[in-house]
Specification:
About 40% of the residues lie in helices and about 25% in strands. With about 325 residues, the chain is of the alpha/beta class. Bound molecules: 2-phosphoglycolic acid.
């Protein structure tokens, strides 16, 4: 029956079986029926019969005698090449099949510093939708807690600003993290056009809890500039700091990403301090001494592709 949906070659090819083709290719490549039979763990007469049947099925002369042996004819060489191409295509299929199975279900553990909670779920969205069988566990903790998780190997990937140097980590800086100084909108300093860090030292400073990377980055810059601006109060989250600043309890250093596009909607203003925003970056990190799972590699590829075109900082 003439089926117009069958690819043209496939209508005729089944006259030759894959088993025959495999033996034929081995004879050509290894230069003899005996060697091919040994390599394929078949009896020599079996291979000889396969070759005869193959030649008959195709109506082609595949070998010609040379000396005491056989060499492939030109069309025999061409067939051997075709068999290798079929093999390569099949291998590609098997690899893709394994990959598709591997992404059908599984688990991907990611640790992320608290500041990334403002955008990381959005970044993970397309991957999560594409692979609904992969359960994503996102642990959101401060910088020191994420470092402890990396030491234990709890997660495959971690998103953080200050990766530790004592672990064998690969890192990919994937997004800018500008750090700004915020005040309540009604604060007199908000009207100033330009401020130096030293101008702020009379103001109460609110900081994140010990172990926070945001706090560490702020302390580093104060120390580097020799500015003595002592914390008045430590609070355990970015949101708690924003509320406290709005309530007039003090000023704070925060990631720009923790603020609304227009910070005034939350009653906050960014102060024009020289040297700020501090240009920092978030990295995705993973341990070099552990193999990344297929879901983790796929997520990294997905983010690399998408972040090349978007995800610029918002300041
Ligand atoms: P954290 O985040 O202040 O929540 O520790 C810091 C970071 O961005 O690494």
């Amino acid at each position: 029956m003439n089926d117009p949906t069958t690819p043209p070659g496939l209508e005729r090819a089944p006259r030759a079986s894959l088993v025959q083709l495999r033996s034929f290719e081995a004879v050509v490549r290894l230069g003899g029926v005996g060697r091919a039979a040994r390599a394929l763990h078949l009896a020599q007469p079996t291979v000889s019969t396969q070759l005869k049947e193959l030649a008959a099925a195709l109506g082609l002369v595949l070998f010609e005698p040379q000396g005491r042996g056989l060499v492939p004819t030109a069309v025999g060489e061409r067939l051997a090449r075709t068999v290798r191409e079929i093999g390569a295509a099949w291998q590609g299929f098997e690899e893709d099949a394994a990959a598709l199975q591997g992404l059908r279900r599984g688990r991907l553990r990611i640790a992320a510093v608290t500041t990334t909670e403002y955008f990381l779920p959005d970044l993970l969205g397309p991957f999560a939708r594409q692979y609904p069988g992969i359960e994503i566990e996102l642990a959101v903790e401060n910088r020191d807690a994420v470092v402890a998780r990396l030491e234990r190997g709890d997660d495959e990937l971690a998103a953080m600003m200050l990766p530790p140097t004592h672990l064998p980590l690969a890192r990919w800086p994937f997004l800018e993290n500008p750090l700004v100084i915020v005040a309540p909108t009604g604060h007199p300093l908000v009207l100033r056009r330009r401020l130096r860090l030293a101008d702020l030292t009379g103001e109460p400073l609110l900081v994140r809890e010990a172990g926070s990377g945001t706090r560490a980055a702020a302390e580093q810059v104060l120390a580097a500039q020799g500015v003595a601006w002592r914390p008045r109060m430590a609070l355990g989250s970015n949101e708690a700091i924003k509320h406290a600043v709005r309530a007039g309890l003090g000023l704070a250093v925060l990631s720009r990403h923790t603020l609304a596009k227009d910070p005034a909607v939350d009653g906050l203003a960014i102060l024009p301090v020289v040297g700020f925003p501090l240009r920092r970056q978030w990295h995705l990190v993973w341990r070099r001494d552990r193999a990344l799972s297929l879901p983790a590699r796929t997520l990294l590829d997905d983010l690399r592709t998408r972040l090349q075109v978007k995800a610029r900082p918002r300041d």
